[in-house]
Task: inverse folding
């Protein structure tokens, strides 16, 4: 394990490091070879078990119909055999995973959600992506407190008992790390949608609107213009949030998808800052301070600052602009044969609701409008799908989101023209997946 | 009722209000005491609001650095082992302009902390709240001043006789190599901000034929493991086989004591500090095995060290007690390590 990680780590260390110019040149030169090998591998797969339903035996029919399986002929398990249910034993492939070589230690790292196998818009809580800066903690709710201080009438302390008695809301919102797709600014670096886009999740969050708490502490609009949120873990993560944003739709949340937050997601209390990058959604939230200036904390001065070609960093970059990605079929997948497919994916915008998603199968020359599955909610993931007949020819699949401000998701060259390729954060470019004649789908960039 | 409550009520949903009108302030929670606020409100702002009294010299900072920081960040703050380097990469000219020149252009080197730092409060505030990484908030304010001074010294922002305190920190601000390097002129701070790209939703015959400009190199094909194992085995797609199938392992080895001991070590955070073959904060497990080779009686001592922690056997860094383990688990781990951590 250690050995293979080391070797992999040497390949792409991202997001601060990218493939070298030489390596990229090698990619260009070796591409044909690469495709041929992919096809050989695919042919091997085709000969094996991965292709569609086993051919019916001789004449009689499908043995899976003719011979009754054990689950049809035996007694099943009793209720509550697993008091907190778990997924089927056949679902072990879809789990959170780290991207080898991305970070150096597990307690300051990322695990990515397996978007390639998820349906609809809600991320199962156990598959929600993780990003911790100083490990995760399982905080005792009876000993957890929320303090509100700074420019408020009365600084106050709340217990979980207090907070859970206050008026609550439940809302569905996406959360995306500002560094999602950050490895791909310079070139293709990772193979699948889990690693390109998996710092993305969407849940129903339940909690108290921050505006209700600030009102309860006697906050007056004229007093302070910035909110500082702080966590109770070792990192005591802090982030500044402008007051307009904070009063608009920010929630001090304890619930996630009908249960309490998971410890990795901030149990028992986290901030939900719709539309804004994940780092501001402070976990294990212990304190809210109101001030008249931004706070310049480590994760808004040294990180989560976007390097521009002129050498300045954009500070307090927060909003996640409209973005979309096709999740099936996507990189690292193999189509099971020619014919009909439903191409499906996710679209979202930090500025509102998704108005439209278009899909192209020819690398962006021609587009068709996809169906949006309901619900279509503001600052939430929206699921889209569209039918597609694959005739075995090479194709390049793309999706393009348009939000209700009219903003159209940009191409990678458009983004690079403004921001260069070193900014790490806020890459919302159109994603391209190449489908080879073998049916293998791979991550590519087009220009 | 103030404007704020109206907004709150709106957010909660007027339907609920129609059933039971808001009764007024909920009157939950209680006032925070000054001592409570002092205990938690430790943030220091760029204008130095919140900066505590105290002082510390570069010389004092060096002692703290060597004892509590160097093991992860390197002697000169150059280490890449745990995190990106803290110091280095700036010039005397950068200190004059307040812009780190090498950040511009396509060939930016790996960025160190001091290449990005624009407000010295950030460094002080962060060390005070979060470092050392495994024992955050353990430093006194004077110690934070001292070790902050030392990090600045490592980057030539101050000299070796410098003493950092509430006054001198203001001078330091004026010398930071990247103090003028941040911009808020962009559309991503507020929801109402203006985007910096303007794509058009063209539908037919848009632009030129797509040209593939980048794809994953063949040598990186298996860098993320076997993608076949990261997808379902039914449905419209399979994961691509990127790794040759492993020879079938028989059930016995999969659940062998050795395999489960490695899992136990991973689950209990041991492998954050010990590699099987590689020294991290503590010695590699194989090194430990080598030292105690032929001394099976050391099992008791190792079990005790695992449960209670230990120090001085391998270096400066102590091993914290692992008392979340029960005796049997500690014993199994010690036995596995003694057996060579196979």
Result:
């Amino acid at each position: 394990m250690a050995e293979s990680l080391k070797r992999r780590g040497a390949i792409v260390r991202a997001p601060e490091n990218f493939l070298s110019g030489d390596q990229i040149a090698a990619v260009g030169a070796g591409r044909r070879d690469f495709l041929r090998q992919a096809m050989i591998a695919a042919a091997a797969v085709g000969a094996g078990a991965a292709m569609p339903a086993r051919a019916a035996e001789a004449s009689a029919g499908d043995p899976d119909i003719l011979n009754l399986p054990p689950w049809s002929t035996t007694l099943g398990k009793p209720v509550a055999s697993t008091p907190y249910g778990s997924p089927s034993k056949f679902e072990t492939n879809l789990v959170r995973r780290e991207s080898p070589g991305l970070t150096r230690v597990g307690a300051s790292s990322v695990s990515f959600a397996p978007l390639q196998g998820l349906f609809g818009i809600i991320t199962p809580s156990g598959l929600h992506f993780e990003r911790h800066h100083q490990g995760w903690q399982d905080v005792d709710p009876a000993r957890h407190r929320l303090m509100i201080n700074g420019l408020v009438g009365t600084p106050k302390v709340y217990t979980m008992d207090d907070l859970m008695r206050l008026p609550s809301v439940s809302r569905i919102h996406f959360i995306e790390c500002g560094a999602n797709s950050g490895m791909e600014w310079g070139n293709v670096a990772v193979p699948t949608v889990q690693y390109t886009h998996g710092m993305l999740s969407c849940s129903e969050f339940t909690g108290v609107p921050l505006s209700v708490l600030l009102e309860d502490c006697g906050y007056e609009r004229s007093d302070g213009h910035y909110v500082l949120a702080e966590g109770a873990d070792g990192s005591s993560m802090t982030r500044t949030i402008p007051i307009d944003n904070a009063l608009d739709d920010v929630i001090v949340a304890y619930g996630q998808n009908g249960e309490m937050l998971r410890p990795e997601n901030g149990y028992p209390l986290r901030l939900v800052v719709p539309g804004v990058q994940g780092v501001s959604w402070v976990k294990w939230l212990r304190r809210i301070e109101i001030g008249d200036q931004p706070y310049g904390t480590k994760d808004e001065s040294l990180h989560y600052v976007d390097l521009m070609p002129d050498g300045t960093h954009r500070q307090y970059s927060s909003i996640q602009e409209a973005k979309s990605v096709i999740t099936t079929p996507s990189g690292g997948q193999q189509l099971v044969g020619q014919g009909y497919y439903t191409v499906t994916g996710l679209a979202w915008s930090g500025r509102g609701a998704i108005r439209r998603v278009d899909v192209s199968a020819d690398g962006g020359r021609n587009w068709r409008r996809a169906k949006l599955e309901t619900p279509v909610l503001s600052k939430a993931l929206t699921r889209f799908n569209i039918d597609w007949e694959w005739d075995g020819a090479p194709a390049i699949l793309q999706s393009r989101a348009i939000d209700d401000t009219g903003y159209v998701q940009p191409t990678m060259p458009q983004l690079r023209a403004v921001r260069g390729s070193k900014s790490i954060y806020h890459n919302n470019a159109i994603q391209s997946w190449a489908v080879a004649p073998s049916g293998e789908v791979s991550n590519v960039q087009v220009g | 009722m103030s404007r704020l409550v109206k907004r709150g009520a709106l957010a909660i949903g007027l339907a609920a209000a129609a059933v039971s009108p808001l009764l007024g302030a909920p009157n939950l929670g209680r006032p925070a005491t000054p001592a409570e606020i002092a205990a938690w409100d430790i943030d220091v702002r760029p204008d130095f609001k919140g900066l505590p009294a105290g002082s510390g010299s570069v010389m004092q900072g060096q002692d703290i650095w060597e004892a509590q920081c160097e093991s992860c960040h390197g002697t000169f703050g150059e280490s890449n082992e745990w995190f990106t380097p803290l110091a280095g990469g700036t010039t005397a000219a950068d200190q004059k302009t307040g812009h780190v020149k090498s950040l511009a252009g396509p060939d930016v080197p790996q960025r160190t902390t001091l290449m990005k730092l624009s407000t010295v409060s950030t460094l002080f505030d962060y060390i005070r709240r979060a470092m050392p990484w495994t024992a955050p908030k353990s430093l006194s304010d004077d110690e934070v001043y001292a070790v902050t001074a030392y990090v600045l010294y490592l980057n030539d922002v101050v000299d070796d006789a410098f003493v950092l305190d509430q006054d001198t920190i203001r001078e330091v601000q004026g010398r930071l190599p990247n103090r003028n390097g941040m911009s808020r002129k962009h559309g991503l701070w507020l929801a109402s901000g203006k985007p910096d790209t303007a794509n058009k939703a063209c539908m037919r015959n848009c632009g030129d034929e797509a040209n593939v400009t980048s794809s994953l190199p063949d040598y990186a094909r298996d860098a993320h493991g076997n993608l076949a194992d990261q997808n379902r085995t039914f449905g419209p797609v399979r994961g691509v086989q990127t790794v040759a199938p492993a020879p079938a392992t028989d059930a016995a080895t999969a659940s062998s004591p050795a395999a489960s001991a490695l899992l136990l070590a991973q689950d209990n955070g041991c492998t954050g500090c010990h590699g099987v073959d590689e020294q991290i904060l503590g010695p590699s497990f194989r090194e430990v095995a080598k030292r105690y080779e032929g001394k099976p009686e050391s099992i008791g001592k190792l079990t005790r060290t695992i449960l209670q922690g230990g120090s001085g056997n391998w270096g400066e860094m102590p091993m914290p007690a692992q008392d979340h383990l029960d005796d049997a688990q500690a014993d199994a781990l010690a036995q596995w390590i003694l057996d060579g951590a196979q």
About this structure: The radius of gyration of chain B is 28 Å. Confidence is low (pLDDT under 50) at residues 1-19, 250-255 of chain B. Chain B has three domains: 2-40, 55-173, 226-231+249-338. The beta strands of chain B are 30-31, 55-57, 163-165, 182-183, 212-215, 237-239.
